[in-house]
Design brief:
alpha/beta; six-stranded mixed sheet; 9 helices; 14 strands; globular; binds zinc ion; binds fe (iii) ion
Length: 256
């Protein structure tokens, strides 16, 4: 089994999960780079997984489906116009002989889902779309801060060795913000140095892992004293879990 981040647009990754000559793609915003990767890998596309409705995640679904005949699996509550099998939290399916669980992670969009593979030959794997990024989280466009915090808690509770396949290469800018929040977090500083080197070498910083994100990602650490204190210095009105998380997210929105 292989996990291949196929780059698209300026900073998207369309994840190709390959087992032998069969493949699954997650969030194909564009068909062309996926078709190219499939032919390079000599793989046949069996399924297309969608996490949420944004164009950079669904733009290539119909062309890919037409070209390959793959099944399309997508969230039930995202108002998608293309034909698909509808999924929501708690659903389980089997793809390429491996069990996949669907998790509801509302916040970035109202019906956003994630796909969790509890046991693959590579260990547990998570495809989380625009909910969790390395060092950050998605913007709250449709949900509430309380929902996004709940989604962070759900993902943080997955096993530490879960490989986290995020949909964008946002790591360096996320870590710049994370360092402003927790300038003394040694694990964060070390990870930032490693990611700078990976990007300079032209390599993706992903997949990350849940265990690593728990150490470096302020959005998974919003109840840590160091994070709460930094947020309250920035926004003295933040006082409980949800308002601290909301203030942290809006601080990031305006961070340059
Ligand atoms: Zn999105
Ligand atoms: Fe996106």
């Amino acid at each position: 089994m292989k996990l291949l981040p196929v780059p698209a647009f300026s900073d998207n990754y369309l994840w190709l999960w390959q087992s032998g000559t069969d493949a699954v793609v997650v969030d194909p915003g564009d068909a062309e780079p996926v078709l190219k990767a499939l032919s390079q890998q000599k793989a046949t596309l069996r399924a297309i997984l969608v996490t949420h409705h944004h164009a950079d995640h669904v733009g290539g679904v119909q062309d890919l489906q037409a070209a390959t005949g793959a099944r399309v699996l997508a969230p039930a509550a995202e108002g998608l116009s293309f034909p698909h099998e509808s999924l929501s939290g708690g659903d389980t399916l089997e793809l390429l002989g491996i069990k996949v669980q669907v998790i509801d992670v509302p916040g970035h969009t109202a019906g956003h889902i994630a796909y969790w593979i509890p046991a693959s030959p590579l260990g547990p794997v998570l495809f989380c779309g625009d909910t969790l990024f390395s060092g950050g989280c998605g913007r709250i466009f449709e949900g509430t801060p309380a929902q996004m915090l709940q989604s962070m808690d759900t993902l943080a509770a997955l096993p530490a060795d879960t490989l986290v396949c995020c949909a964008h290469e946002y790591t360096l800018s996320n870590l710049a913000f994370a360092k402003a929040v927790e300038p003394d977090n040694a694990a964060l500083l070390q990870y930032d140095t490693a990611c700078q080197a990976m990007r300079q070498a032209g390599r993706p910083t992903l997949p990350s892992s849940i265990g690593l994100e728990r150490l470096v990602n302020p959005f998974l650490r919003s109840r840590e004293h160091s994070v709460v204190e930094a947020v309250q210095r920035h926004d003295p009105a933040a006082h409980d879990d949800v308002s601290v998380f909301a203030a942290l997210r809006s601080w990031k929105n305006n961070f340059k």
